[in-house]
Automatic annotation (TrEMBL):
GO MF annotations in UniProt: methyltransferase activity
Top-level division of the source organism's lineage: Bacteria
Name of the protein in its database record: Methyltransferase domain-containing protein
Keywords tagged on the record: Methyltransferase, Transferase
Native source organism of the sequence: Periweissella beninensis
GO terms for biological process, alphabetical: methylation
InterPro entries tied to this protein: MnmM_MeTrfase, SAM-dependent_MTases_sf
Organism placement in taxonomy: Bacteria, Bacillati, Bacillota, Bacilli, Lactobacillales
Cytoplasm recorded as keyword: no
Length: 186
């Protein structure tokens, strides 16, 4: 069967990320993507996982310790401040954004276009060759469509000589199924 947005996002990362890489989980949430990335890069690699909610930080840390993960820094800060946690010449091999609200928490606390675009703008110049930014965009909630429109406006303008930009979505499903955007540095 065709992969859903989440499994497709993981397949893209699996095909790109290697052991020893530096990767970003821009929206840690309950930590599922963080754990996935931590396993992909292995003990020699490094994951920086960001979230603005204490509940997300706690849930992610709990999940990681249950799996004895030691290569990850879980950072209670917005992804738009990513630069504070990286030295100037550090290259990023991959990043994932899972946009929307934290499942099981306050649905009014959502990712928003300004911080999401700011984080992407920070990551792109630091991407290694063939490095990949994957965004899984949930947009069925209030505010979601605004973020999606801003994102599409922005990523469609990235120069094709420098980046390959992909959109993946089921187009015959009800209830605004999530879509995947992926940006790869050429
Ligand atoms: C859809 S959830 C992420 C789910 C997560 N990937 C998982 O596997 O459980 C979106 C998360 O983004 C977080 N968030 C919202 N704005 C943020 C920002 N500026 N920086 C970092 N995280 C943010 C929310 O607190 C929420 O936990």
């Amino acid at each position: 069967m065709l992969e859903n947005a989440l499994t497709f996002s993981h397949s893209l990362l699996k095909n790109t990320i290697n052991q020893g890489d530096l990767v970003i989980d821009a929206t840690a949430g309950n930590g599922h993507d963080t754990l996935f990335l931590a396993k992909l890069v292995g003990p020699e690699g490094r994951v920086l996982a960001f979230d603005i909610q204490q509940q997300a930080i706690d849930n992610t840390q709990t999940l990681l310790s249950e799996h004895n993960i030691l290569n990850t820094s879980v950072i209670h800060d917005g992804h738009q401040h990513l630069n504070k946690y990286l030295s100037e010449n550090t290259l990023i091999n991959g990043a994932i954004f899972n946009l929307g609200y934290l499942p099981g928490a306050d649905k009014k606390i959502i990712t928003n276009k300004d911080s999401t675009l700011a984080a992407i703008k920070t990551i792109l110049p630091k991407l290694a060759n063939h490095g990949l930014v994957v965004l899984v965009v949930y947009y069925g909630h209030p505010g979601g469509q605004t973020e999606l429109s801003a994102l599409l406006d922005s990523v469609t303008q990235l120069p094709q000589q420098k980046y390959a930009v992909l959109q993946y979505q089921f187009i015959n499903q009800v209830n605004q199924p999530p879509l995947v955007l992926a940006i790869q540095k050429k």
